[in-house]
Amino acid sequence: MNSRKIYVGLVLLFLLAALMFSRHIDPEKKRSQQHLTYNTDVEDTSLSIEADSFSTHLPIVSIETGGQVIPGRPEEGQHVRSIVNTYIQADMKIYDAAGVLNTLSAEPDIDSQINIRVRGNSSRLFDKVGYLFQFTKDDGSDRDIAVMGMEKDNTWVLHGPFLDKTLIRNYMWYNLSGRIMDWAPDVRFCEVFLNQEYQGVYVMTEQISVGEGRIEVTKYDGKAGVSSYIVCADRESVNDVQYLQNFTSYARRIYGRLEVKYPGASKLTPELTETISRDFSKFEKALYSYDYDSARYGYQNYIDVDSFVDYFIINEVAQNTDAGLYSTYFYKDVTGKLKMCVWDFNNCCDNYMEEQTPMAGFFMQSRPWYFMLCKDENFNKRIISRYRELRRGILSEEAITANIREIRDYLGTAVDRNFEKWGYSFLPENDLLSDDYRKIGSYEEAMEQYETRLIRHMRWMDEHIEDLLSYSHESKNKKFNH
Fold first, then answer.
1. In sequence order, which residues have a C-beta less than 8 Å from that of residue 280 and are 6 or more positions away?
2. Omega before residue 263 within 30° of 0, cis
3. How far apart are CA 139 and CA 150, in angstroms?
């Protein structure tokens, strides 16, 4: 009998080890990537950007405003944070044929009314702007539509890369993040016309929201006193939004405010906002307490640690310096733990407009919540272990360089058409990046700078990733430890 128990125990141990090993060697999550699946064999050689002769292997988005100006750009002398978000009604057609070139003379795959506005922060100042839009029915109510093979929803973002001369930063990093984390926005390249005038290459992007195929949490029914939620740390605005009264806000540990993104305004009551504030503050108070790393009272009781680790690594590798300060999203199921979600890589890899990002050095450990997380040796060890794991696979040098070149080759002549419209931005007097050495004179230079910077920084991290342990050393953290 004892020998049988020993045998069964050994079998169970073997199966457990096999499961752990399989997770170790294959951490990647499934994700459909446009550059590998959509119209990859369709020959696209036309350079025309005229509506009547235009053709592309990418989907086309055509917006007609009836002569209205899409609102959201600042007036002369106006700060972008003082802009009140207003929408206009417009019509949108999407041409998304498979296996053939898309043209504006074909039958559209989607034809819908929309509400639309300009979106973004500093990008509102660019000549090529991004948009947020919502599909609507004839009566003005929301209309959920599946766009370009992505899950149906009514709210979408059209990201217009202008500062990012590679055109690929958001597309590439959302896809990489979606292969690493539980969820990241799905994306598709497309080319956009506004009132029959060509606007260039855009990235159709899922908005961070609750729904099937997006953030899948228990939906709020409007009755219970608690709810799943999404909150975003960002700059404070003049718009009528609900901000949390959370611990790090009133303790002045964060730079902006935490805005409630879900539930939406129609269901969000002051009482529910207060409940979410208290719930988020439980995590923060545990994090900033003397028991921050204890099993019974510590932060790990409130957050999905793996999610926070992956968010740290992705943004550190990409040197996405807004992460942890602005456009920083958290979400939580009513019965689960707090998780993080990536957003906006436009400034990553030394593409921050106002100043150079040093190639060497870490920055995420200085961000408000990570300032305390990185005082825990176990948290830093998990970052180091996970980083090493990803560098053997999804984030290996070979995988990254292949990914960049595959995306570049997939875009093909769409790049030429984009810079037929926006090529003047390469002129030195129009370059928005500070420091002369970052002046980029062509698309080829932009791609080379991006790839070189990314590879150099990852090699630096390979040599210095263990240095993260210095942030949790006792000599640095005596006043924080119990």
1. 231, 244, 246, 247, 258, 330, 338
2. yes
3. 25
Distance from C-alpha of 286 to C-alpha of 296, rounded to nearest angstrom: 10
Task: Give the residue from 416, 447, 305, 440 showing the smallest Cα distance to 44.
Answer: 416
Q: Bridge-partner residues for 170, per DSSP? A: none
State how far the Cα of 330 lies from the Cα of 281, in Å rounded to an integer: 13
Q: Are 187 and 172 in contact (CB under 8 A)?
A: no
pTM, to two decimals: 0.91
Decide if pLDDT at 380 tops 80: yes
Coil vs helix vs strand at 117: strand
pLDDT in tens, 108-157: 999 999 999 999 777 777 899 999 999 999 999 999 999 999 999 999 99
The more confidently predicted of residues 2 and 167 is: 167
Q: What is the pLDDT of residues 172-200, one digit of tens each?
A: 999 999 999 999 999 999 999 999 999 99
Residue 278 and residue 392 in contact, taking contact as beta carbons nearer than 8 Å: no
Backbone conformation region of residue 388, classed left if phi is above 0, alpha if psi is from -120 to 50, else beta: alpha
DSSP-derived letter for residue 430 is G
The percent of residues in the chain predicted with pLDDT above 90, rounded, is: 74
Among residues 281, 311, 282, 296, the alpha carbon closest in space to that of 374 is found at 311
CA separation for the pair 273, 71 (Å, rounded):
29
Instruction: Provide the pLDDT for residue 245.
Output: 83
For the beta sheet containing 257-262, the strands, ordered from the edge strand earlier in sequence to the opposite edge, are 257-262, 229-234, 328-332, 338-341
At residue 85, the 3 state secondary structure works out as: coil
| Torsion sign, CA atoms 357, 358, 364, 368 | negative
Distance, in Å, from the CA atom of 448 to the CA atom of 395, rounded to the nearest integer, reads 18
| SS3 at position 428 | helix
pLDDT mean over 89-106: 98
